[in-house]
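Example 340, ligand magnesium ion.
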Amino acid sequence: MTTRDRVRGAIYGHLVGDALGVPYEFTHDIETVEWRGNGTHNQPAGTWSDDGALMLALLDSLLDAGFDTADQARRFLDWRDHRKYTPDRDGRFDIGGATSQALARVADGVPAEEAGDDPDALGNGSLMRILPIALVDPSASTAELVDRAHRSSRITHGAPACLVACALYVLITRELLAGGQDRSSALARSSELLRAEYQGQSELVTALDNLLAWPTREGRGHVSDSFWSAWDAFEASDGYRSAVVRAVQYGNDTDTTAAIAGGLAGTYWGLDSIPGPWLNGLRGKEVVDRLLDRLVRRLDPNREPRLPAMDPDFTFSMSDLDAMEDHAEWHRIRRPRRSG
Ligand SMILES: [Mg+2]
């Protein structure tokens, strides 16, 4: 399986999981999970919710602006105020309490990374959107990925429990994206890397210990319960379908548990593991494909490399020279097609 299959699987796995869970949100004792409409939010089948929209908003920001939390927060407001990143502009029927309050603070001019500073906001509202941090720049260092996961979470959820869950999810996704590793090893290795990263930061070490020892899996909105419900649904399953069905069957925050589990399952088993009727039945695919095509092009080693800046004081490093050569190669390969 190629990285491209896994990246497409990640994004669509998250969105399809969200849409599968939307009709069941806040319900209990779910025996049969079907791809259907109506239900809790009375939406047509295949409609993703806030989880999918905010994940796509983050992806769009990372592709356009690099890592810039002010830009991320602006795009979250585009979703809140203008229904951007939704299927047919009607996927803004659900918003979490902490996210709503934090985005109001952003709109009032509070800096993005200070907006989510309520220490009692322990929900899964940042975990449900954090996936693209692991996808756009998989060669980033562990320190960079952890820092980006934390800072992006802080826009709405700055409590250590939320930061740590986001960082762990991003590191696990990076492991799954690389392939060649079983699920429990990916979890163990990511936990070890994160613990090493947190050395000397006792608040974060404690939060990681608490997360790793968390006892419940009830599909709830609490970030730690949500993380483990999604993980267990993924780890106990033999394919994408059973992972997201299990995630929904916990009840409660069904769409978010299934989105988080679906991102992991789609990364692990790839795009082709998602049942065709669900993928075909997802609304708003034109919104997704515009972003996904850019993401996949960015990961393609044959894409046009960026030229180093040309200023009078410019001095070359070896990596600049490599970039120049790649650039020349790119034009040489493509020129005949363009003139023909
Ligand atoms: Mg939702």
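Summary: Residues 304-340 have pLDDT under 50 and may be disordered.
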